[in-house]
Amino acid sequence: MRILAFSDLHCDRGAAQALVDAAAGADLVVGAGDFATAHRGLAETMDALKPLESKAVYVPGNNETTAALRAATRARVLHGETIEIGGLAIAGIGGAVPPLPPLPWRSHDLTEDEAEAMLAPVERADLLICHSPPEGIADRLEDGRGIGSTALRAAIARIRPRLAVCGHIHACWGEEGRIGGTRVVNLGPGPNWFDL
């Protein structure tokens, strides 16, 4: 399956249009969260992505809630669920894990325990879509601090998907690493292509 994946549009309609233009060759489109900016601009961003809805799977970021994302699109939205598409098992979890420091707006966050509990029922996935990166891979802020999730790292090691994609940490867009046999990639807003 040919997969087009991205994260962190943050209301960038030009980037959204570039994804729509690129998606003609995709069997599946994956969005790893942060379509909005501080809960603003979600409807406009999802309207720009409307042509992708029939073949898209999204997770919420920390800039929009799960409920708001589900209300703004007809695409499939995962947050603690697993679905099967074209023979691929796809699991997803959104939000910032672990929670961010206090912001002037309310971030959509999960504690490590909440993320662990949400992913505990997932026994198998070929593709894991996360907004936050796992601890130790593409998780460093510009000041060098790592803020990746221990729960996501443990879930990837346990579930062993072929591919795990994330976003959230803008300074690490394009970076990747491995957890066991799983390729982990921090996407960013441009088109990223994968074959599964």
UniProtKB/TrEMBL annotation:
Superkingdom of this protein's organism: Bacteria
Pfam annotation, one family: Metallophos_2
Gene3D superfamilies listed in its UniProt record: 3.60.21.10
Stretches assigned to the Calcineurin-like phosphoesterase domain: 1-188
Signal peptide range: none
UniProt-listed InterPro entries: Calcineurin-like_PHP_lpxH, Metallo-depent_PP-like, UPF0046_metallophosphoest
PANTHER family referenced in this protein's UniProt entry, alphabetically: CALCINEURIN-LIKE PHOSPHOESTERASE DOMAIN-CONTAINING PROTEIN, METALLOPHOSPHOESTERASE
Family: Belongs to the metallophosphoesterase superfamily. YfcE family.
Name under which the protein is recorded: Metallophosphoesterase family protein
Organism expressing this protein natively: Mangrovicoccus algicola
